[in-house]
Amino acid sequence: MTFQALIILAIQTSIFLTVFGFGLGARLDDVLYLVRRPLLLARSLVAMFLVMPLVAVAIVRIFDLRPPVEIVLIALAISPLPPLLPKKQGKAGGHAAYGLALMAIVGVLSIAIVPVMARLMGAYFGLPFAMPAAAIATVVLRMVVLPLAVGLIVRAAMPAVADRIAKPTEQLATVLLGLGVVVLLIALLPAAWTLVGNGTLFAMVAFVAIGLAVGHLLGGPNDDQDVVLALSTGSRHPAIALAIATANFPDEPNLAATVVLYLLVGAIVGMVYMAWLRRRAAVGGPSTA
């Protein structure tokens, strides 16, 4: 196993443990939250599966981007389900059950929808974009469905055990993720820096910012729901996006570096959005945090 593969394994393990931790603190009613709110579910799916691909199409047409940036943006647009969002949404004052339910439902739907969208986007751009459902299912089942289900089972069968292991699980996941991300950034940041220019940063900022705005608007009037959908729409799943990009363009350099650059841009734009939420609450607006 190469050093890079070991780092990726550490990040994947941290994501597994994080989602497992979500399950340890959840109930089945939390996962069914959106099933009982079909209008909110419909708005969520429109934002994540319809609006963002259209945004990506517009951005790629407007900006004269380098090939790896175009490829990754298209792949990101059809790769919903950010794996760590329930944690971020909770810190932002979002509705915890909504975040968990959205992660579970979008994860299952992604298995069928993402391969279809990959083909549609490929046909539109004249690119060999395709992704077998089995490949998407592998990522989703390993990173979302399995750890969440195991966590829910432990919570239901052994609540005392769930309470006891929840904090150590979160701590281990945080350490693994922090170490993996830092090392990955050190390794790929020089290549990512070479992609700056030619409208790349503007395109990525626009992609994330529009996603946040659309999700915030479609989240509805409830303050703890708009932040959940905003973060869910403005963020995408980097592992799925990279899998799609590398499977279709294995010889294209800097795909992983482009994903890293997107994650950095997304983190900065997300912090601006969070600061706006806090400022709005401080001046007496709707409370979201």
Q: What share of residues are in beta strands?
A: under 5%
Give the domain tally: 1
**How confident is the prediction overall: mean pLDDT?**
84
Q: What is the approximate shape?
A: globular
Question: What's a concise summary of this model?
Answer:
It is built from twelve helices and no strands. It is mainly α.
Description:
With 289 residues, the chain is mainly alpha-helical. The chain has one domain: Na+/H+ antiporter like fold, CATH 1.20.1530. The chain contains twelve helices and no strands.
Topology:
Blueprint: H1 3-24, H2 28-31, H3 38-62, H4 67-77, H5 85-91, H6 96-125, H7 133-157, H8 159-193, H9 200-218, H10 223-234, H11 238-248, H12 255-282
Helix pairs in contact: 1-7, 1-8, 3-4, 3-6, 3-9, 3-10, 4-11, 5-6, 5-10, 6-7, 7-8, 8-12, 9-10, 9-12, 11-12
Offer a few descriptive terms.
0% strand; 289 residues; globular; mainly alpha; Na+/H+ antiporter like fold; 12 helices
